[in-house]
Write a structure and sequence with these properties.
heterodimer; A: Neutral Protease, domain 2; B: about 55% helix; about 0% strand; elongated
Chain lengths: ~1200, ~300
């Protein structure tokens, strides 16, 4: 957990106090993006970009940009045609159809592929050669204008088209398109420097249908008709330097609403939703006011736009001066439950406008600062808007989440430092993915990362006070806004980037406090603290002997040393003690203030100064202790398991005013099913002043307790009389009052109580008939006619309650489920579900909450054996065209069915949907649900686990999901859950065994594999573009000599190695005979700047030098080097050796010879082979969606 | 005069049914009248000195006569109705004849001509009787303000009502019970009907009718049904709104109103603009308080781009 050698690693940190050092040999100052044609029918985009770039080194001869998916037609630099090469190793991570299938191998290769094109490290998929005519110009560091024409056809990621298939024009159909993606994904829709650290000003132009609106970043300068008056062009200017990753776009027939409170804020929604938009956004100005006030800083952009779109990638996405929301966040005034959620989304996006969009980050390892600050100020807004109770409850929830996640997976590291790049130093070796790049992270990890980041910010606040905290933020913002106004001093713009060290420095400047230990504990190190506490009261000494143990050996834990607050509530009052947790001391003696002899008349003072009467008869007569709390302020990221007597928990629940304490005691009371616990919980339930969420969880606890004490339970079922008293008519207690949800607290309680009651079980472990009748009556007498609010959530919860009441059917073995043997209670339930589900078709509820609940209930009935288990119904509801909530609920049921019934067919159906569904969110969600509820796990025997499935999933993560980072990482997660890190157990072992020895392998190789492998290769196309490019470059530049850019991190990964060698090919200099400068001088020059450029240490392994000499000396083709050398020289495991050797040879039988035959002879064969291949690939270029084709490289003018 | 209209009506139908052999009394009546007209034509021909005539020519003349008489009747009716009467008077006929270019003065002389033949009145055939409806009760006489020529009141049983009085149910429990079961019955009946008439899904393979589920049908735009309140809710909202949210609407509507106005106006602008680009500018000044770039008019393309065809 604790990376050893942390301190030296920090020393190595390159981005030190000196400020930002660009990884690029140039500075981008301005970029024009012009999209002049958007075709909704064909889902295509045509346009160009123009980047204004200042070289910062003299010998800049190639420029790397980020671009994915785009088909690039033509590149010109200062109006001169420029050759370019396009290589995206992430398209297919592992090139060979190796039989390896080992996730460890894949994750390394994937991380290497991502790094090879990582814009944060100055890399990119698109490499442009500066025309030789401009070399002199470059040497004078004069401006370059790079003009790139590109198009995008049916993008699978980055831009999402929503085109409903109805009659009418695109505008009438509500067709729209918007940019989306996870982290820096702008390169998916136009070529750029897709890094959060490269800021520039922007001019954005979008020509769209006259009935459409294009919303983008910055100020809308003007809108101009085209000559035929059928289209209009939106011209945007963004003068605040912004990273390409924060550029966004939304085009559609939007309805426009100018915010009535802030005229510079404009809201957009899809047709017909304007009334909802008005209501939803009517609150936004208050969020604005709040942030501006606490940050004492005006909103940095001159305008703000919110766009609500369908099929959103994420609910909230913040970009420079605009945020894109899911249209499903819109709601009318009648909806209760969605309102706070939507407001939270709005507030979240606005917080990210300040920290995330306006202030960007230097590198990925600084991401936690931005996420932390935006999450923290969002928390402050929560506190102000929803109150301290809600805030503390939320913090507790987040803390529990992160603790659970870290303990499960082994830790979340906020500030990863990668010193030296040796894999063994990988700080996240416990994970099945690399945390070096945002794009290799599991989505769940990333959400937890954000959660931890804001919790740590709160810890910093605890340490330095909120006032200082806000001053630091203000300082960051004012530095940035000064820098942003420096229009022509682009070197100043790096002030708008935040780094960990800069942030910490500003904290120490402002507060004068040293928070280094805190940072070291929570930021530079992963893991949480696990405390076990118990105590004894020593009557003689009047001392509380507290024992606090820690578990710091389990995965995800760390040792805590430092202060720990303990609050002791005694008869005489509440006292805080700060204990010093040290290495070896477990016991702490805390002197008590009160005498155990108690004065019965006296009121007991609480922590908040309140004095209350308590019935003290329950407590131990000898002890003055009422309850004890460890770390009540949650100032450590921890899990506390504390032992105290049941009456103490009961006192804590009744009298402690902190909602977190109440929540904790409710959780603890589950273990004490006694009448006293029951009474305490019932009292809390009835107490109107008590926080509603506490009351809600008391309901569930009460149900559990009632079930534990079922044999001794007296009186009506738990909560029934309470519910009757609160919500039913006085004269007829079986009839619920007509709905009136004006009081939200009682609304939530009214919703929850029946759900909890349905969990009650009698001695036969059945839901009591009385409870079921009660719930059915609630449904029957539900009357919402006089209510101001919609009751859709309430009704949905009633169905959930029905589902909760279902118990497993008593069945004779494998009896077929038919109507005749249906349990009469179930018949009643089914009757209700049928009616509800059918009524939804006629009078749909908001967000179809009722359908969602019905589907879940039906699955429960199936699972419990009352209704035949059948996925057909769910599959029909999961189809595209249903509302997304319904689809997810239905898919969840199918996933569950797949697991329970071990159905291969359904698993295939799901996998098919993962690959083909039009909605990215749904695809992501299916993977997510399959991972959470897997059909089998790695140590399990299952008929589903077979070779074909391994192949399928491998293909999915290897090449099938290259257009969506999140999806790929989801596929990796699923693969990990199903098969683990090593080779899946279901794969036949013998073949693998043979692979170990190449000679043997050749001899025994199953002949059926060979054709399969060839076929497979041709099908999946080993990065078609790379071959195509070879043809383009092989002849003119038959050799290369630049090895200086080999990233040491990835050297032993063949994939990265190859990609680097591919990069070499584009070098313009001709060996020996170079017209411009001698090759040797050039290669000598470059290493001088290379360490700064790509972060590799200057030392190179000897073999690569040797390689270079060989390469230039013998005029060896670079391609061959890439094939031969890893095999010959890299210290690889035998497994990966096998794979590397076959990396670039398409035919398995071919590479076995490789090692035996003489190299020279072999070279020719290879050359031949590749020519042959490239011809094939050329033909295939259209079938693959690879954007760059060989033709366009060789003769850019051809494509015009 | 009284039967002019009848003649006219009979004439037209007579021509249609002439060739047919009908036994129905109305047809008989028409045939008889036709025969009479033929007799008239024949006697006029005899008067004029013809000895014999072809059947076709007699028919033609009959037809002409009939048309002439019909036209007189129709026209006279129009005149009489024009003066807000229902019964034509002599003067109506006179005016009609004048209108038709007939010299009325010659009529008395013609009627008194010496050689005229007198035709016997056609035999009165039995009028078609409308079957009498059962009369129940006394028909109400017209009140004084209704003219007598208006149709009579229908039988009393068609309009009278007899209110019955029952004790209204006021017991809360019964009321709720009733409302609940009524709603449930309606819902069940409705959904069952929908399920019966459309496609269904079933939870049980062996039984599709006990718990019929209306089949799930994907929408083209699923978010609309999911987000917009249903009509029922809208209705409710209006009711509650009007009573409780008065003060809210006052404050909220004012600025919101402007913005909706403008977004609507913007659409208009697009059409207005094409004729007169300077118009929206003046409009902006006077009423558009909010200056938002999305509300500004769309500009016309710059003219310096001479060749739009090549540009696009």
């Amino acid at each position: 957990m604790t990376p050893t050698g942390l301190e030296p690693a920090r020393m190595n940190r390159k981005k030190g106090d000196k400020g930002f050092e660009s990884p690029r040999p140039y500075k981008l100052t301005h970029q024009v993006v012009c999209i002049n044609n958007i075709n909704f029918q064909r889902k295509s985009v045509v346009g160009f970009v123009e980047l204004t770039v200042f070289p910062t080194v003299a010998n800049l001869n190639r420029i790397k940009l980020s671009s994915k998916q785009c088909r690039i037609y033509r590149v010109r630099i200062n109006d001169l045609e420029a050759a370019f090469i396009y290589n995206d190793p992430t398209l297919e991570v592992c090139h060979n159809e190796s039989k390896q299938r080992n996730l460890n191998y894949f994750s390394n290769a994937y991380a290497a592929a991502v790094s090879a094109v990582d814009p944060d490290a100055g890399n990119g998929e698109l490499c442009i050669k500066v025309p030789s005519e401009l070399w002199k110009h470059v040497d004078e560091l004069k401006v370059l204008k790079i003009h790139i024409n590109f198009s995008l056809d049916q993008p699978k990621g980055g831009l999402h088209f929503v085109v409903p298939s109805v009659e009418g024009s695109m505008a009438e159909r509500g067709a729209h398109v918007f940019s989306c993606g996870y982290q820096n994904s702008t390169r998916f829709w136009f070529p750029c420097v897709d890094s959060y650290s490269e800021l520039c000003t922007w001019k954005l132009e979008f020509t769209v249908d006259a009935a459409m609106v294009a919303v983008s970043n910055g100020d809308l300068v003007e809108t101009v008709y085209t000559h035929d008056m059928r289209k209009k062009t939106f011209h945007y200017m963004l003068t605040i330097p912004t990273a390409a990753s924060n550029i966004s776009l939304a085009i559609g027939p939007f309805e426009i609403l100018v915010d009535p409170y802030m005229h510079e804020v404009t809201h957009f929604c899809l047709p017909q939703l304007l009334p909802l938009l008005k209501h939803t956004t009517s609150y936004l100005h208050e969020v604005f006011e709040f942030y501006e006030e606490i940050l004492t800083c005006r909103y940095p952009y001159s305008c703000f736009k919110t766009v609500f779109i369908d099929e959103a990638y994420v609910e909230v996405a913040a970009y420079a001066s605009m945020s894109i929301f899911s249209t499903n966040l819109l709601h009318s005034a009648m909806i209760i439950d969605e309102t706070p959620l939507t407001r939270r989304c709005l507030a979240q996006s606005l917080a990210q406008q300040f920290f995330g969009c306006f202030i960007s980050r230097m590198s990925w390892s600084d991401e936690w600062v931005l996420k932390g600050i935006s999450g923290y100020i969002y928390g402050l807004w929560m506190k102000k808007t929803f109150g301290v109770n809600e805030y503390r409850h939320w913090i507790k929830e987040e803390l529990d989440k992160i603790v659970a996640y870290e303990l499960k997976t082994g830790g979340v590291l906020l500030h990863p430092i990668f010193g030296g790049g040796k894999e063994k130093d990988n700080p996240a070796s416990h994970l099945h993915f690399s945390i070096k790049h945002p794009h290799t992270l599991s989505w769940e990890y990333y959400t937890m990362f954000q959660c931890k980041a804001h919790l740590v910010m709160r810890l910093i606040e605890n340490r330095i006070s909120m006032e200082f905290m806000l001053q630091v933020f203000n300082k960051l913002l004012s530095l940035a806004s000064t820098a942003s106004s420096q229009k022509f001093q682009s070197h100043m713009w790096s002030q708008m980037l935040v780094s960990t060290s800069g942030f910490l420095k500003s904290i120490s400047n402002v507060s004068g406090k040293d928070i280094q230990p805190l940072i070291k504990q929570w930021v530079d190190q992963s893991g949480v603290v696990k405390f076990y506490g118990s105590f004894a009261f020593n009557r003689k000494r009047n001392v509380l002997e507290l024992e606090i143990k820690q578990d710091y050996t389990s995965p995800g834990t760390q040792k805590y040393v430092g202060p720990l607050k303990v609050t002791v509530q005694e008869l005489d009052g509440s006292f805080n003690h700060t204990l010093q947790i040290e290495e070896n001391s477990l016991k702490h003696d805390i002197p008590c203030h009160s005498k155990s002899r108690r004065n019965k008349k006296k009121k007991i003072p609480l922590m908040n100064g309140e004095e209350v009467d308590m019935d003290l008869s329950a407590m131990d007569a000898d002890s003055p202790l009422l309850w004890i709390r460890i770390d009540p302020d949650m100032s450590v990221l921890r899990k506390v398991e504390f032992e105290q007597a049941d009456f103490m928990w009961q006192y804590q629940l009744r009298y402690e005013r902190d909602v977190v304490a109440q929540q904790e005691s409710i959780l603890a009371l589950e273990k004490f099913p006694t009448p006293a616990s029951r009474l305490a919980l019932t009292d809390i339930l009835e107490q109107e002043q008590c926080f509603y969420r506490v009351r809600m969880s008391a309901c569930f606890c009460l149900a559990k307790i009632a079930n534990s004490m079922v044999s001794t339970w007296t009186g009506p079922p738990a909560m029934k009389s309470l519910f009757t008293r609160m919500f039913c008519c006085k004269t007829c207690p079986n009839i619920v009052k007509t709905n009136n949800f004006m009081s939200f607290q009682s609304y939530f309680l009214q919703k929850t109580m029946p759900v909890a009651m349905a969990l009650l079980r009698d001695v036969h472990n059945l839901c009591p008939k009385e409870v079921l009748t009660f719930i059915l009556d609630l449904i029957k007498y539900n009357d919402n006619r006089k209510n101001k609010f919609s009751d859709n959530y309430y009704r949905a919860e009633m169905i959930d309650a029905l589902a909760n009441s279902v118990t497993p059917a008593v069945s004779v073995n494998n009896e077929v489920r038919t109507l005749d043997n249906l349990n009469p209670d179930v018949r009643l339930i089914l009757e209700e579900i049928t009616r509800f589900l059918n009524m939804e078709k006629l009078l749909p509820s908001y967000r179809h909450t009722i359908t969602v609940s019905c589907l879940r209930a039906i699955r429960v009935l199936q699972k419990n054996g009352h209704v035949p288990s059948d996925p057909a119904l769910f599959k029909s509801y999961a189809e595209y065209g249903h509302f997304v909530d319904i689809r997810i609920a239905a898919l969840e049921a199918v996933v569950d069915y797949t697991k329970v019934d071990r159905s291969y067919e359904e698993l295939q159906w799901l996998l098919n949907m993962i690959q083909n569904d039009p909605v990215p969110y749904v695809r992501h969600k299916i993977l997510n649900m399959l991972t959470k509820n897997p059909p089998f796990t790695k140590n399990m025997e299952s008929p589903l686990c077979n070779e074909a499935l391994v192949d399928q999933l491998w293909k999915l993560m290897n090449s099938g999901t290259s257009h969506d980072w999140r999806l790929r990482c989801g596929a990796v997660d699923l693969y990990f859950t199903l098969f683990g890190l090593s080779r899946p157990s279901c794969l036949p072992l013998p073949e693998l065994g043979l692979v170990l020895n190449l000679k043997e392998k050749k001899a025994v190789l199953n002949p059926t594999i060979i054709p399969e492998a060839i076929a497979g290769n041709q099908e999946t196309a080993i990065n078609p573009s790379s071959h195509a490019q070879l043809v383009g470059f092989q002849n003119p530049f038959s050799s290369s000599q630049d090895e200086e850019e080999i990233d040491m991190d990835t050297v032993h990964d063949s994939q990265a190695f190859i990609s680097h060698h591919l990069n070499m090919l584009e070098r313009p200099s001709t060996p020996g005979l170079s017209k411009y400068r001698p090759a040797s001088s050039r290669s000598a020059l470059i290493p001088q700047h290379s360490p700064g450029c790509d972060g590799t240490p200057a030392t190179k392994p000897p073999w690569s030098m040797e390689l270079a000499r060989k390469g230039t000396g013998k005029e060896q083709s670079p391609l061959e080097m890439s094939i031969l050398h890893p095999v010959a020289t890299t210290p690889l495991s035998v497994f990966s050796k096998e794979s590397t050797s076959s990396k670039h040879s398409d035919h398995h039988h071919h590479h076995h010879h490789e090692h035996k035959k003489k190299k020279k002879k072999h070279k020719h064969k290879h050359k031949h082979k590749h020519k042959h291949d490239s011809k094939e690939k050329d033909k295939e270029a259209f079938t693959f969606s690879s954007p760059a084709s060989g033709r366009s490289i060789r003769s850019p003018s051809l494509s015009d | 005069m009284a039967d002019t209209t009848a003649t006219a009506g009979a004439g037209s139908s007579g021509t249609r049914s002439g060739g047919k052999q009908s036994t129905n009394p109305a047809d008989n009546y028409h045939l008889a009248r036709r025969r009479t007209l033929q007799v008239v034509v024949s006697s006029l021909l005899t008067e004029a000195g013809f000895e014999s005539a072809e059947k076709a020519s007699v028919e033609t003349l009959t037809e002409m006569l009939q048309s002439y008489i019909s036209e007189i009747g129709r026209s006279a009716k129009s005149y009489c109705e024009h003066t807000a009467r229902t019964q034509p008077t002599l003067s109506d006929i006179v005016v009609t004849l004048v209108e038709m270019g007939f010299n009325v003065d010659t009529l008395p002389a013609y009627a008194k001509r010496s050689q005229r033949m007198v035709i016997t009145a056609p035999p009165v055939t039995n009028q078609p009787v409308t079957p009498k409806a059962l009369i129940a009760g006394q028909n109400r006489p017209h009140p004084p303000h209704i003219p007598s020529h208006f149709p009579e009141f229908p039988d009393p049983h068609t309009y009278i009502k007899t209110p019955t009085y029952r004790e209204p149910v006021s017991d809360y429990q019964v009321l709720r019970e009733k409302a609940a079961s009524q709603r449930r019955d309606v819902e069940r009946a409705l959904t069952r009907f929908m399920a019966k008439t459309g496609e269904t899904q079933s939870l049980f393979k062996d039984d599709v009718s006990t718990f019929p589920l209306i089949a799930a049908r994907p929408f083209t735009i699923p978010y609309l049904t999911a987000l917009l309140p249903s009509e029922l809710e809208m209705q409710q909202m209006e009711e509650t709104d009007s009573s409780e949210q008065d003060e809210q609407t006052d404050t909220e509507n004012l600025p919101l109103h402007i913005s909706t106005d403008d977004s609507g106006a913007e659409k208009e602008n697009t059409s207005v603009l094409q004729q007169n680009p300077s118009l929206p500018g003046s409009r902006n000044g006077e009423e558009n308080i909010i200056d938002n770039p999305y509300l500004r008019p769309v500009k016309k393309p710059k003219i310096r781009r001479k060749k739009p065809d090549t540009f696009w």
